[in-house]
Amino acid sequence: MGRITKNKKASLAKLEKGKAYTIDEASQLVKEITFTKFDASVDIDVRLGVDPRKANQMVRGVVSLPHGTGKEVRVLALVTPDKEEEAKEAGADFVGLDEYVDKIKGGWTDVDVIITMPPVMGKVGQLGRILGPRGLMPNPKSGTVTMDVGKAISEVKQGKIDFKVDKFGIVHTTIGKVSFSPEKIKENAVEFMHTILKLKPVAAKGTYVRSVYLSSTMSPGIQVEPKSIAE
Q: Phi and psi at residue 175, in whole multiples of 5°?
């Protein structure tokens, strides 16, 4: 069995085993149990009472976090020449089409989000085998395939994220940084959870939100009382 580090012991000492904390308590605690020398990300894991193997129980959506994620998002805009200036003004880090399609075919995927347009999806669709496994494939449902390129890029830069439940029925995403105030962490968590609740599939039976955990990079998970977020 691996040796527990001094910092890990200190983190665990602050957590009461088996206790579910309110979102106010958890937002403060996640800062107190983080000892990384860098500005760690704050993550939320939500276990849902759905069967993602069934199409009518898939949970997928987008949410604009009021305080963003704290992460610098690198955006690639795959657009036609007439949309290039709009994409650049909106803050896209990389703008073009054919040259970037070729780069991606060659293995380049050094971006976080790809925004594109319906007219060029024929070219972008060829990249599915490369982009799909990395979660980078543009999708109309997440707002990354649109004619309003400038707006889509601005929203992503300001903290819009897309998420979907995995095969185990868990939604995992980043909602901020440890340097955020507890209030900002809480507000981002509440906005995210409200979106999750709105997306409850009609076919989902029983308890929809089974558990919620808040954690930071390399910290233990803090169990959160779901009702404290929903309210």
A: -120, 15
